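We modelled the chain as a single entity of 119 amino acids. Its sequence is:
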Amino acid sequence: MKLLLNTHKKIKSAILTASVVVSNALFAALPTTSNPSTNPAAGDYIGLLKGYAFDIFIVVGLVLGTLAFIVVSKNMIATYSEIGQGKKTFGDLGMHGGIGVLLLVFVIYLLTEAAVVIV
């Protein structure tokens, strides 16, 4: 009987300790948001919103650049596949590669100019 009471006390103590740990974790402080890259002065909420909008536009531009790269890569792979089937030649692959590089340079140039205009 004494062993049963000691086991009950240990279990009760363990449950109490676990509940304190869980309750402390539940009331932990939330993380703060990071400031935008343009970091406005304190209290300048319009500048803060402009900074976040700028950062969002930059991320969208990076996604567009990545999509352009994926499209050019997909086109190059499709052309290489058609070379194996005898439909195209390596000259076609070189042409697609050259035009793809020019397209990527143009897209990156436009995105860079857009980022300058947004600021």
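As a brief sanity check on the tokenised model: The first helix runs from residue 2 to 26. The chain has a mean pLDDT of 83.
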